[in-house]
Amino acid sequence: MPNLLITGGAGFIGANFVRYWNEKYPNDSLVILDALTYSGNMANLSGLTDFSFFRGDIRDTSLVERLLHDHEVDTIVHFAAESHVDRSINGPDAFIETNLSGTHSLLKAAKSVWLDKGSGKPHRFHHISTDEVYGSLGPNDPPFSETTAYAPNSPYSASKAGSDHIVRAYHHTFGLQTTTTNCSNNYGPYQFPEKLIPLFIINCLTGKDLPIYGDGMNVRDWLHVEDHCRGIDLVLEKGRIGETYNVGGGAELPNVAVIDAICAGVDAAFEHDSQLGRRFPDAPAARGKKSEFLKTHIADRLGHDRRYAIDERKIREELGYEPVRTFEQGFQETLGWYLANEDWWRATMDGSYLKWMASNYSERARRT
Ligand code: NAD
Ligand code: TYD
Predict the structure, then answer these.
(1) Is residue 12 within 6 Å of ligand 1 at its C-beta?
(2) What is the C-alpha radius of gyration for the chain, rounded to an integer number of angstroms?
(3) Domain with 131 in it: what CATH number?
(4) How many Å lie between the centroid of ligand 2 and the Cα of residue 296?
(5) How many domains in the chain?
(6) Could you state, in chain order, the average pLDDT of each consecutive group of 10 residues for the chain (368 residues)?
(7) Which domain holds residue 173?
(8) Ligand 1 site, residue 183, Cβ cutoff 6 A
(9) Is 259 part of a structural domain of the chain?
């Protein structure tokens, strides 16, 4: 029976992973370590009881060693990170500290407990990373494979690239049993509303502008978070030690197409449910208008990567991975979740969130 330590388990993907694992493997023991930064939220774990939660920092090596030892942890699934590209442009330091030093601190603790004072038991350090480490593709370039050279462009992706290299080095040099997944853009329930899909759904509902960076033709490969969790599960079960696997959603779309789907989805939801107009009176759809009139092109993100795309042949052919949702299905479910969980997203939009949003978007308005 595995004992898992899940870092960042109160964040978007980590919490979805806890839910996924709890349902699929109810007898496993789950320990969550999360610093509860602005994007970490205990409400993401609401309704679950079967886990131990520790509020703490992955950079606290002795705390991590204690958790690994006391809970006889044999598997670390490492999600904790600073995760938003725009914040990394405004303040890169936290990204280097958490993503790079924090990952190294975790590796040191794992090496100490599992190898130096080790019990000889098999163990696994699974590192969650991003396709952004590979840089930006041109329109006709082949998608990123696991052998694509790293070329990170933002402080966020550079800090993740660095963390991937440290994980690799701890495997190669010390024999730590590691695996890494590099996934594409996730979406789904409990995603903090600073990222494109939840932010734009909420702005449609509250009648705020939809701030499109640049020409909106940047391409991302959208992956439903539960498909991502299934990919991680397969790598934990059957992945080869020391290997990396790319996980994609098979849904390469320009931002404008995603934004059109959000606008059309919200408009259709209001047509089908007359309650929505009363609940969200500021939405254009409440007055029979189209959400697309909220679209506003603003100054581009600095260094904005043009296109990401995933070649997922390795995880498919070796491990049998396949995303089960199309973007259309996954998006409808996600929209339904945000419509049904207004209390959750309103509670995330506190003073510090509003301050961040104002500074991020007013700075762009000045550059437009
Ligand atoms: P998130 O920002 O929603 O959650 C991050 C979590 O980490 C939060 O709960 C936060 O409190 C916690 N955390 C931050 N610093 C910490 C620290 N020093 N110690 C302990 N906990 C800390 O992020 P997410 O979207 O869930 O991303 C999870 C992982 O997946 C990250 O490693 C990210 O780089 C990677 N990833 C995300 C996406 C995406 O689309 N969201 C895509 C590719 C890769
Ligand atoms: P985001 O969700 O921040 O993910 P990432 O930068 O990791 O890909 O952004 C997805 C895309 O949407 C990206 O090309 C930037 C764009 N975007 C906007 O146009 N406006 C916004 O307000 C945000 C948050 C993102």
Answers:
(1) yes
(2) 20
(3) 3.40.50.720
(4) 14
(5) 1
(6) 94 98 97 98 96 98 98 98 97 98 98 88 95 98 98 98 98 97 98 98 98 98 98 98 97 98 98 97 98 97 98 98 97 98 97 93 76
(7) 3-189+222-250+304-324
(8) yes
(9) no
